[in-house]
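B., you asked whether I could sanity-check this one before it goes into the benchmark set. Here's the sequence:
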Amino acid sequence: MITYYKLLDMLNRKGISKMELKKAIGCGSNTLAALSKNEYVNMKTIDKICDFLNCQPGDIMEHEKDNS
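And here's what the prediction gave me:
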């Protein structure tokens, strides 16, 4: 499972709100909700986030083994 806690942590450390991120990358509320719930978001969105934050995908997301 892909988790985005690193993204949320980075936003917090940089003082960027989710709404600022939403506006900067031009995504919808559903995309923000998906990120918050560790659900699938497309790679285009990940690319936009990385461009905005000047980071690599591994800086904002992580794979965790699903133990179900």
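One thing to flag: The mean pLDDT is 95. Otherwise nothing jumped out at me.
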